[in-house]
TrEMBL record:
Name under which the protein is recorded: Sulfurtransferase
Matching Pfam families: Rhodanese
Keyword Transferase found: yes
UniProt keyword annotations, A-Z: Transferase
GO terms of molecular function: thiosulfate-cyanide sulfurtransferase activity
InterPro entries assigned to the protein according to its UniProt record, in alphabetical order: Rhodanese-like_dom, Rhodanese-like_dom_sf
Organism of origin: Notoacmeibacter marinus
Alphabetical list of SUPFAM superfamilies matching this protein: Rhodanese/Cell cycle control phosphatase
The Rhodanese domain, residue ranges: 24-112
Length: 127
């Protein structure tokens, strides 16, 4: 992971592999800061949705016990929320570098939408 030292803390840029490993061993909480519509259409299974438009960085839960990793579509929105968090609370926070697009490029599984029914479905691009 790449670390960026800022005035109020450390901003970590995680790779897809780092995120997948930490998520698999349940050592993190993954927060998707995209809009509810984007999240409903497709998202990483197990990620929580906290849209950037409604979340100030200081509104995020405590990192006691589990680290928070943010993600969005490309990494821009999650970076903005992470920096808000650091400006208000300090410490350290992480985001998925390249966002959900990188996750999909790496052929990782996610929850998508069945276009015929509108229902959620598991998508495994590596299968």
């Amino acid at each position: 992971m790449k670390e960026e030292k800022l005035d109020n803390g450390v901003f970590e840029h995680w790779t897809v592999d780092e995120l997948a490993e930490a998520f698999a061993d349940r050592s993190i909480v993954l927060i998707d800061v995209r809009t509810p519509q984007e999240y409903l259409f497709e998202h990483i299974e197990g990620a929580l949705n906290a849209p950037m438009a409604f979340v100030d960085g200081a509104d995020l839960p405590s990192q006691e016990g589990k680290r928070i990793v943010l993600h969005c579509g490309s990494g821009l929105r999650s970076e903005r929320v992470a920096k808000q968090y650091l400006a208000k609370l300090g410490g350290r926070i992480a985001h998925l570098d390249g966002g959900f697009a990188k996750w999909k490029d790496a052929k990782r599984p996610y929850i998508g939408t069945d276009m015929g029914t509108g229902n959620p479905k598991k998508v495994d691009p590596s299968a």
